[in-house]
Amino acid sequence: MADFKIFDNDIDFDTLQEYLGAEAIAIDTETMGLIPRRDRLCLIQICDDKDNVSLVRIAQGIKEAPNFKYLMEAPDVTKVFHFARFDVAMLEAHLGIATHPIFCTKIASKLARTYTDKHGLKELVKELEKIELDKTSQCSDWGSVYVLAEEQLKYAANDVRYLLSVYRKLIDMLIRENRYDLAKACFAHIPTLVYLDLLGYADVFAH
User: Can you give the pTM of this predicted structure?
Assistant: First the structure.
């Protein structure tokens, strides 16, 4: 039996209320590629501290998900991503969602774990959770959202299942190294980076 719930195009009201009661939720997306304006959003994964995992299948042509949008814009629930810049851009481009507040475990890892250059989710989970993630489904076809293989669904669920524990351990590391305020300033800048990305700008901070 699957240890996650599957929704089509949006979460339901009861699930929305459940997630709104969380201090933080983990979020990830699966897409047809890495260019938000070109590539389709296919799947959204959500998890809270109670290990309530939801997988939201997004059909072609869907432009809004009102309950999910409300959740992602709720000011009292932190949205935790790994590489938030991409996922936030996908949600803005395809569902018109202005996600906030944001915590990015990739940025947090780069600021806190300066003893390594390995900041991928698999490496983070392996070090901090002592769990080896299976990433074999990472580069697969997510477009046929209604016939996704069981391996793809499990992969998608696991990408958010450990993220909140990683998030809290990274906060402890950032505080210990006196870099938490710097991290929060970086997270606050993500919406601006996303806006620039969606407008097609390259690095405006370059010389």
Answer: 0.96
Please indicate, yes or no, if residue 204 is contained in any of the structural domains.
no
Instruction: Single out the residue of 130, 49, 121 nearest to residue 86, CA to CA.
Output: 121
Distance between CA atoms of 155 and 150, rounded to whole angstroms? Answer: 9
Specify the CATH number for the domain of residue 186: 3.30.420.10
pLDDT per residue as tens, the chain (207 positions): 359 999 999 999 999 999 999 999 999 999 999 999 999 999 999 999 999 999 999 999 999 999 999 999 999 999 999 999 999 999 999 999 999 999 999 999 999 999 999 999 999 999 999 999 987 767 789 999 889 999 999 999 999 999 999 999 999 999 999 999 999 999 999 999 999 999 999 889 998
